[in-house]
Amino acid sequence: MVGEKESSSPSKRRDTEKRKLQLLNMFPLTVENKHVAQLLLSTGTCPRCIFRFCGVDFHAPYKLPYKELLSELQKFLKAEEDELVSEIPNPPPKKIRLQEPEDQIDGMDSLSQNGEGKLSVTEDGSSSSKNSNLNVCNVCLGILQDFCEKEFIKKVCQKVEASGFEFTNLVLSVSFPPQLSVREHAAWLLVKQEMGKQSLSLGRNDIVQLKEAYKWITHPLFSEELGVPIDGKSLFEVSVVFAHPETVEDCHFLRAICPDCFKPAKNKQSVFTRMAVMKALNKIKEEDFRKQFPCPPNSPKAVCTVLEIECAHGAVFVAGRYNKYSRNLPQTPWIIDGERKLESSVEELISDHLLKVFKAESFNFSSSGREDVDVRTLGNGRPFAIELVNPHRVHFTSQEIKELQQKINNSSNKIQVRDLQLVTREAIGHMKEGEEEKTKTYSALIWTNKAIQRKDIEFLDDIKDLKIDQKTPLRVLHRRPLAVRTRIIHSMETCYVDEHHFRLYLKTQAGTYIKEFVHGDFGRTKPNIGSLMDVTADILELDVESVDVDWPPALDD
Amino acid sequence: MSKENPVKTTVYYSTLTGGRIIPCDNTGSIFAPRRICVITLAGSHPVLQSGKTIKSISYQISTNCSRLQNKVSGKFKRGAQFLTELAPLCKIYCSDGEEYTISSCVRGRLMEVNENILHKPSILQEKPSTEGYIAVVLPKFEESKSVTEGLLTQKEYEEVVVKRLKATTAAS
């Protein structure tokens, strides 16, 4: 119209068109895409990959059934140029009108009468579809053909349900064989060349990624089949790994051209990882690539194989505080040369129950410091956290956790547990904080070689913030570095027992070796009780009275 | 009381899994808890007999080697001076002019020497088995079993000392 501004850039026009098409639920390709679509279809590319290379970036078209897509595509290609929608003043009906097929459309000499191009019947191509016109796509190797349709998804979901995991959402992780990137690259070069002829400006970034399109189609199918939403942050992961043994060597030529992309690393089975292949594709020059790899890629005989379908649940964390009432219980299993030296351990007595109830594969036990085999932990107990690896059951009410705590406490009198609760991974930091910074209180039963009276120990009550230097105790020197540690004894309180015994209550900095503070460890802890009292002293019993960390939060039972 | 009243032997030795003694020519004695060997003088050593006064102790065992220079780092105790059974640890100089060299008696890495006896040599005589220790040695993991097997208990050691005494008196 006169005076009206011309439409903005071609790309903006294209976008507007697409949106309108989307609204009208129409076939997403326009006249601009025709040559590229024709070329790709005739060289063995499936409809969904064709959409990707035409920059179709909304989900709806991909979700249509394969057969429908194929026939719509064929109709689109048969139609006259002026029949095709380029502007939409009056929206045509849903299906594109058929016209008599033209023998030649713009140089596409290789087209056969019905516009299907070079498609041929294959013996063992598609897995489930019996349509003789369906080839294995030369770009996606079947991923966007059968492997994104309901039947396959159902198979995967059956496996997921059989695995026995409890989940309320999931994240899907798919792994494609690296040679797909090579084929994608080849297809892109082909498309780029064709668009150059038409001076179209579809950039590499307008091409929809294979994995993205795959997820657009499959996420709703998974959700529907399993009844849970897909959530990128979910701890429950379903992973599907595809392989294509037939074309494994497609990548190998890259190593000759970019050898430093493919350095063998220890844990890799093959150097041709997706990352390495991508790196090499970014580096390689177009001419060099075209010399070594066919553009378009050739059609494979078979679709991808499914290498594995695995489910795994991220770790969950359970925290609490434990008391230890045995003087004969190590914190972790004590095994030397395959022989168990002492029965059981703190961590096993607590974790074995959790392992069972959470149906986890394994556990990692950690605590805010620890005590020796012969030391009891009294008072509020010592904070601990248990990581349960790959749990099959993760949802528990606070009532159920309370019952679990009761079960643990009923099963042993050597340990008791309180404040048992589920916590996040981040919360563990609070516990380790305590290990370095907070104070601990102890009570020790001390023996002296010289006979003592009440007045001989009273002075200890008045000593505040005593600095001591401790060389690494001899009893741990075989497994710890030799060093001197300065520690502070904040306060002490004595309780006379008899001429050779008294109880000492101490509040100390974290990391203080109490036993060595009492007997002096060959004079390597200075000062020590023996040196302060000018006697030979030894420790008969030690108890942890409190671990002054205010985590995990106390629960009122 | 959960433990027996220990007047003669202190309980913390039991956490050091019992003392063992090796009869070297110069009668150095060792306690060996968890592979760690503490080198001390055994009861029959001349320096510990009454009447002896120590003038000084030196860890300089040769022009190039001082045990004081020993430095270890890390969990695996890298940098330690390696000792054979006859490697000298220190020299003790007495006021009567006598000089005694104390050997390691144990093969292994030198962890530390006791600097307290440098400053106050009398500790060596007053508390030879505890604060007056000479050195700490860590044998190689593979050799630690053979080291402990060569050691004697207190009782066995006393029998050896008695035998030795009888032999010397018989000879004289």
Keywords:
heterodimer; A: 557 residues; alpha+beta; ten-stranded mixed β-sheet; three-stranded mixed β-sheet; disordered N terminus; B: 172 residues; six-stranded antiparallel β-sheet; three-stranded antiparallel β-sheet; 5 helices; 9 strands; globular
Describe the 3D structure:
The complex is a heterodimer of chains A (557) and B (172). Chain A is 32% helix and 22% strand. Chain A has helices spanning 10-24, 34-42, 47-53, 60-63, 66-78, 150-162, 179-198, 210-226, 253-257, 274-283, 286-292, 346-357, 398-411, 428-437, 454-462, 514-519, 529-533; strands spanning 171-175, 236-243, 305-313, 316-324, 334-336, 339-342, 362-367, 375-389, 415-423, 439-448, 464-471, 484-498, 501-509, 525-526, 537-547. In chain A, the strands form 3 sheets. In chain A, strands 4, 7, 8, 9, 10, 11, 12, 13, 14 and 15 form a 10-stranded mixed beta sheet that branches. In chain A, strands 1-2-3 form a 3-stranded mixed beta sheet, covered by helices on one side. Chain A is elongated. In chain A, 34% of the residues are buried. Residues 1-5 and 87-133 of chain A have low confidence and may be disordered. In chain B, the strands form 2 sheets. Chain B has a 6-stranded antiparallel beta sheet, with no helix packed on it. Chain B has a 3-stranded antiparallel beta sheet with strand order 4-6-7, with no helix packed on it. In chain B, strand 2 and strand 3 (37-41) form a beta hairpin. The chains are: A alpha+beta (557), B alpha+beta (172).
